């Protein structure tokens, strides 16, 4: 009796809808990861600019120090 109900429930299931829902969820997760990676890359580029500006300032200061001695 239980097996018959289980078999009937499986047969009546709309498998296209199930697969479509799984695909939608997977795509949502992938898009979420991509957005997160994009944000991190953007933050990394901004930090890189800060480092480069600091490095340039340090080099100018070192050059000025070397010229004065």
Number of strands: 0
Span of the ends, CA to CA: 97 Å
- Following the backbone from N to C, one meets helices and strands in this order, namely HH
Number of helices: 2
User: Low-confidence runs (pLDDT<50, min 5 residues)?
Assistant: none
> Which structural class do the helices and strands define?
mainly alpha
Q: How much is the radius of gyration in Å? A: 29 Å
Q: What oligomeric state best describes the polypeptide chains here?
A: single chain
What amount of the residues lies in strands?
A: under 5%
The major pleated sheet works out as:
none
Helix share bin: over 70%
What value does the average pLDDT take? 91
Shape: rod-shaped
Your description of this structure?
- The model has no long low-confidence stretch (mean pLDDT 91).
- The chain has a domain at 33-69.
- It is mostly helical and 69 residues long.
- The radius of gyration is 29 Å and the shape is rod-shaped.
- It has two helices and no strands.
Keywords for this entry:
mainly alpha; rod-shaped; 0% strand; 69 residues
List the helices and strands and how they pair.
Blueprint: H1 2-12, H2 15-68
Concise overview:
The protein is mainly alpha-helical.
């Amino acid at each position: 009796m239980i097996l018959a109900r289980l078999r009937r429930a499986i047969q009546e299931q709309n498998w296209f809808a199930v697969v479509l829902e799984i695909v939608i969820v997977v795509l949502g997760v992938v898009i979420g990861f991509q957005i997160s990676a994009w944000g991190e890359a953007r933050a990394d580029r901004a930090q890189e600019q800060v480092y480069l500006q600091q490095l340039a300032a340090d080099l100018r200061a070192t050059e000025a120090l070397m010229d004065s001695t």
